[in-house]
Amino acid sequence: MEYSLKGKIIVGGTAKGMILSTTQPINFLSSVDHRTGKITDKNHELCGKFLKDSILIFPYAVGSSVGAYSIFALKSNGASPSGIICTLKTDITTASGCAIANIPLLELCKYQVIPEIENSSEGIIDGVSGYLQIKKV
Amino acid sequence: MDLTREEEDALDGKNGKPISTAYKILLSIGKATNAEKLIPVEWVHLSGVNYNTIGDAGVEFLTKYSEEAEFVVPTTINPMGYDSHKQNNLSSNFQKQQSKIAKAYEKMGSIPSFSCIPYELFQLPKSGHSVSFAESNAAVMANSVFGLRTNKESSLSALASAITGKAPYSDLRMDSTRDPKIRIKIDKELKTELDYGVLGYFSGKSVKESCVSFGPDISNIDMYKTKSLSAALGTSGACGMFSSRDTHDETISFGKEEEKSIIDELNTTDCGDVIALGSPQLGMYELELLSKMIAGKKFSKKCMIFCARSVYEKSCKSGIAKILENAGANIICDACTCLSPLLSREEYDGVITNSVKAAHYLNKSNGVSVCLKDLKSIVMEYAK
């Protein structure tokens, strides 16, 4: 099965990776190991998963303003997602971190019905036309 | 977002790479917050100063960036990881990298405040004016208490504002967003600064809007409680302002059960081997309050108090510092409890604190257990 979702382009570019999806917000400073990209917060449903090379789909970032540097550090350490999708709103931490780290970032448009996206799917961000393509593997 | 001709040129690199990078950041956050244009800001407060938070990637970025970049508006900066005037056991690498960060900000023209409470230390612009504050407690305080207008900025978005003197006209810089659409109904009695911190942490988790209303009215609470509430609200959520203005939209209850769920998450031990006070850093009001409680007593455990250097100097003159130091407290300047390497897992099993923000980062980042108690209880139990 394959389908596409429309998004607003916040940071352009194309990206491909396995989907890592959550409905819980993320604090990039306190919940992620910046060297490995592992989510370490025991209270988060993605605890133990790795951001590296993924298409991260999450509502928005919370907490520390330093989270923007955390996103940059993840990229510098080769442990960042390939691309990021915000489902509810794009916060300033994620937007500025992705802008500096050159990580494609889309915000999903609200008018479409967004199905539950499974983690075993592959995602492709087209940051030129503003689409997220999802392929079930 | 519409850019003027000059802004387009700056984005294209006509004024050099650092300014172009700054406009690239402003463009991304402008798109994210649906801004139509950029407006001037009169003060910037930066986070991303502690080596423990920004790491080697941050040091490298700032060192390179500062070679050509210069701040064009008054810019204060957050605490770093330690007090460089005091002896410590920190690694030489930490101190070397931390000093590179401080130098990079100094080179760009920052005021060396090393404080997360710029609103208590400086004559900020008047109510109604736009600023750009990273450091979540300072952004919430600026919007909610001082009537300034800032979004909940990130380290990098505020840096971009310091370089350009501009920020997107969006979100909490607009009247419509500052009008709360959601209310937290306080259904239990709140007494201590810790109670207000727990309320803030719950509210940040529960609300996705940028502004939240509290009822009944809490606008007459003291500075300690207000700072505790603001810091916790900024830590757990995306919300950048609270208001006592009533709203007829959605209401969420905060009662005993909600309070318990937050305490259960953050209170991870019943005992600690060190007391840490200050996240946000303590101001004169809190130092005076503590000095009255502790006068003539001695702490039975090691006690660290984090404050701004200018606050410490003032407290030395007034004799308050002497009272606290006689009680055994170690007053640490230019740093804060949050992510300070002075509170590492190698050295401590548990930290006693009244700060919900500190509890979040100690548990999740430093990996140290936390015993949460209000200030009065801490003095009662751990001082004789």
Describe the protein in words.
The complex is a heterodimer of chains A (137) and B (384). Chain A is α/β, with parallel strands linked by helices and 137 residues long. Chain A has helices spanning 67-76, 92-101, and strands at 2-11, 14-21, 54-58, 83-86, 105-108, 121-126, 131-136. Chain A is built from two helices and seven strands; from the N terminus they run E-E-E-H-E-H-E-E-E. Chain A has a seven-stranded mixed beta barrel with strand order 1-5-4-3-2-6-7. The longest helix of chain A has 10 residues, at 67-76. Chain A is globular, with a radius of gyration of 13 Å. Chain A starts with a strand and ends with a strand. Chain B is α/β, with parallel strands linked by helices and 384 residues long. Chain B has 16 helices and 14 strands. Helix content of chain B is 44%, strand content 16%. In chain B, helix 9 packs parallel to helix 10 (223-236), helix 9 (193-206) packs across helix 11 and helix 12 (284-294) packs across helix 14. Chain B has three domains: 5-173, Aconitase, domain 3 (2-Layer Sandwich); 179-263, no CATH class; 268-382, Aconitase, domain 3, CATH 3.30.499. The model of chain B has no long low-confidence stretch (mean pLDDT 97). Chains A and B meet through strand 1, helix 1 and helix 2 of A and helix 2, helix 3, helix 7, helix 10 and helix 15 of B.
